[in-house]
Amino acid sequence: MGRRSQKKKKTIVDIAEASGVSVSTVSRIINNKPDVAEETRQRVLQLMEEQGFTPQITWQQLRSGKSPFIALNFPQDFNPPSHGIITAAALGVEDADYSLNLIAKSLNDNDLLSVFRSGQSDGMILMEILLHDPRVELLREQDFPFVMIGRCANNSGLSYVDIDIEKGVDDAFQHLIDLGHRQIGFVTMLQKLEEKQYGFTTWAVNGYKNVCQKHGIAVHWREIDGDEAHAKTAVSELLDETPEITALVTPQQSGVPGVLKAVRERGLRVPEDISIIGLLTDPIGELLTPPLTTIGFPASELGMEAARILIGHLEGALTAPQQMLLRPEFIVRGSTGPART
């Protein structure tokens, strides 16, 4: 019995010959270049479809000028990834028949624009927003669709969803002040890294300074680089310099382990000797001993709302900029108590 013949896979050369154009013209059409007559483009695309030259999804993308992908850019300059945000954003876009592509590296201007110009993505979710973010300015200038998880100094005409960390800091300090605390340490990530000013920390520090001014309490603030050992050292130095501190607040999850280690190595009891409040996603706070009083981080809601807003812009359901500040839930647990006398 003879071997069953297999249908030869069509090549770009076959498509060029069948359509009566050059190989370079077919290549320009495949790469969605603008310098091809529209009639020629549609004729070649139709031939690709008939010949089965490309997967169904590719020729539909070429013909419509749209892709089924949304990119999420989460550069790792300041914080490790928040898996809750990424997962929620992925679920949100998948519900609308898109897929999410995660880009974890920092992008220069050419890399950022090529994500759109090459047809890799219809829109982008930007994370780790800087106070003056070149990604934001470039995409705004080019009029590409995007939404921020976070916010800049100037958000005019931009869509974003962010945690109202100023309100979270205010809730934390009000709780401690009601318990009699007046000497309260504050530990944040770096505001600046290689001339980049991180938006989230800036808003947190603004909230902290406002709280100190409102209640007439002293500023005891330390910055950390996200490394647990550095955080522990910074907190130890703070407590050495100001032993009268009776409470510590860190509005970032990466600061919590270092704060707890510094306190325990000094033999301080929580909350009898010192109260601690940290920003954490639930239910992590419940698992610590004692359970941690927390500024809640609404990771899932941030991801879902960012996806909803971006898809709304892409589908035409939302035409005006959308700006959302999510109030964090403040949860009192066993790590806070009356100030020691």
- What is the name of the CATH class of the domain at 165-297? Alpha Beta
Radius of gyration, CA atoms, in whole angstroms: 26 Å
CATH superfamily of the domain at 165-297: Response regulator
Helix content: 40-55%
Q: Going across the major beta sheet, what is the strand order?
A: 2-1-3-4-5-13
**Which fold name fills CATH's third level, the topology of the domain at 165-297?**
Rossmann fold
Structural class, by secondary structure, is: alpha/beta
The helix/strand order is HHHHEHEHEHEEHEEEHEHEHEHEHEE
So how many helices?
13
Poorly predicted ranges: 1-7, 55-65
Average residue-wise pLDDT: 87
Kindly, what is the distance between the CA atoms of the first and last residues, rounded to a whole number of angstroms?
A: 96 Å
Number of strands: 14
- Choose one word for the global shape: elongated
Q: Would you identify the CATH architecture of the domain at 165-297?
A: 3-Layer(aba) Sandwich
Strand content: 15-25%
Major beta sheet summary: 6 strands, parallel
